[in-house]
UniProtKB/TrEMBL annotation:
SUPFAM superfamilies the record matches: HCP-like
Protein name according to UniProt: Tetratricopeptide repeat protein
One Pfam short name: Sel1
InterPro entries xrefs: Sel1-like (IPR006597), Sel1_AlgK (IPR050767), TPR-like_helical_dom_sf (IPR011990)
Signal sequence range: 1-18
Keyword field: Signal
Superkingdom per UniProt: Bacteria
Length: 320
């Protein structure tokens, strides 16, 4: 009976052992391909590893490292393959960090975390859709919708405040903008201190456009004392949620040494992030970088491409 059991165990273990051996061999081939710079081949081998042995931490790490080599942020705009790669890299990075969060901190974890942090400025389609839907919901609130139709009537301002009392951050933002300008809507007179206070209400609730506006108040000294360091704090909060305007302001600060030492290379990286998120002014800056050879080689073609993108983006915005 004992002999039968041993034979049975041996029989069922052979395929598993063979499978593990095959997975180990494929992983070694993937490592070799990676080290030789054959990144597409490395990914293909890792697909085979996952099929044979399931997703393992070491194969997931190698996949992330390989995808990072293939990811080109400078070629992300309107490039479907790069956008797919970005989404996969974000997903894999999150999975690795979650799986290894209780393990001992090592260089691989630090590397993946750094990659993941650098990609957080590109919000997922789901996050963008969720924010757009929330904005639509706020705009469709009866009090908010009625207030917009009563722009010349002080009662409209009271309706905005009703919307505020129901947690409508769009209403908070609008009141802030009313105070920051001198257009006279709702009989509101320009008051930068009041504008800052209303922007701050929405910003404290995590609304990225309001966080950007609070940053602007500190950047220009509107309603508060000018403070570039404080402005950058708010710009980073907005940029973390994908706000392209905030990214562009961060780039400006690095480029013009506002609140920090000048760092043109980092400025370029932030202009690139901002441009890839649709900011036309950042696209124009990139066009100038390539035209004049600022931290990148002079490239008239790339300069022209970014200038054309900026013009097209501006045209789309004016047609909305």
């Amino acid at each position: 009976m004992r002999k039968i059991i041993l034979l049975f165990l041996l029989f069922i273990s052979k395929p598993a052992l063979a499978q593990n051996a095959a997975a180990k061999l494929k992983f070694e081939e993937a490592e070799t391909a990676f080290n030789n710079g054959n990144y597409t081949s490395a990914l293909s081998k890792l697909d085979e590893v996952d099929q044979l042995a399931g997703i393992m931490s070491k194969s997931l790490y190698l996949r992330i490292a390989t995808q990072q080599k293939l990811f080109d942020e400078a070629d992300l705009y309107d490039n479907h393959e790069q956008k797919k790669l970005l989404a996969s890299l974000q997903k894999n990075g999150s999975a690795y960090l979650k799986a290894m969060q209780n393990e001992e901190l090592d260089d691989k974890y630090r590397e993946v975390n750094a990659i993941h942090e650098s990609l957080k400025y590109y919000p997922s389609k789901e996050a963008i859709a969720q924010m757009q839907q929330q904005i639509k919901n706020w705009e469709n609130m009866p009090e908010y919708a009625a207030a917009i139709k009563s722009a010349k009537d002080r009662t409209g301002f009271d309706l905005l405040k009703e919307a505020v009392n129901k947690g409508n951050v769009m209403a908070m933002m609008l009141i802030g903008r009313l105070y920051s300008t001198n257009l006279g809507f709702f009989d509101v007179k320009q008051d930068h201190v009041m504008a800052m206070n209303w922007y701050k209400k929405a910003a404290d609730l995590g609304f990225a456009p309001a966080q950007y506006e609070v940053g602007n108040c500190y950047y220009f000294g509107n309603g508060v004392e000018k403070n570039y360091v404080e402005a950058l704090k708010w710009y980073h909060l907005a940029a973390n949620k994908g706000n392209a305007q905030a990214m562009k302001r961060i780039a400006d600060c690095y480029f013009m040494a506002l609140g920090m030492e000048r760092d043109v290379r980092t400025a370029y990286n932030w202009f690139l992030k901002s441009a890839n998120n649709g900011e036309s002014e950042a696209m124009l800056q990139l066009a100038r970088f390539y035209q004049n050879g600022i931290v990148v080689p002079i490239n008239a073609q790339k300069s022209g491409i970014w200038k054309e993108r900026a013009e097209n983006t501006t045209a789309k915005g004016s047609n909305k």
